[in-house]
Fold:
Amino acid sequence: MSEQKKKKLRLGGMALRNGLLVHGPTHWAAAVRRGDGTVGVASGAKPHVDGALTEVPGVRGVIRIGEAMAVIPLVKRALPEARLPWQDASVAGAVAVAAVGGSLLRRRLKGPGGEAAITALSVLPSLVALRGGDLAAYHGVEHKAIGAYEQDADARAATKEHDRCGSHLMAPMIAANLAGAAVLRRVLDRPSPAANAAMQLASLGAAVEVFAWSERHAQTATARALRRPGHELQRVLGTREPTDEQLAVGRAALDEILRVED
Structure:
């Protein structure tokens, strides 16, 4: 077997409420447990953006996240049974609370304390989503399936935490949001919604660069410190040990991504 064939694909994923979505270099694949107990599988090509901006630090990460989000309607079209993480009444309510509460806090609280409160409130929908249903278990499936593939191991024995989980974006993004908000308020007395949105995009871009740096320098003490909050979030709240039936759905998604990427 050639070295090219032996090389592992770089895979990412997103837990669904009833399954798993896996991203490969050029394709996506998803598997879900249907209401009748059967497993539905679908796959397709990923949207891809080319051009000079895809190499610009701070911009490239936002573009790649945008590509990943653009896959979601394709998954729903090909696999209508797929239930998205936020496809739940309690999560919709938490989103509304976070939006209204953030708007009120922005008007009434000024300075770092207000921005810290707004940032903390923005995490509420994610926490609500993970506390209900099987989402945390399928988040564990995501990490176990991809980790087992990378290590040539059994998914049941793989850890339910993973170094490339999006939870590792949380700490740098909160820090970047707070720093960006402080700079914005120094420049503008009353930042407009467009200015706040631009700041949040810039914060996301900065967080992705920190995430990528941590992966490239994984053995350093700084990278381990940056990843620690994400690992703790995964361990305590974000993931749960899945059942064998849930792991079977993960294997179906993994088999499909390897098939279409071959």
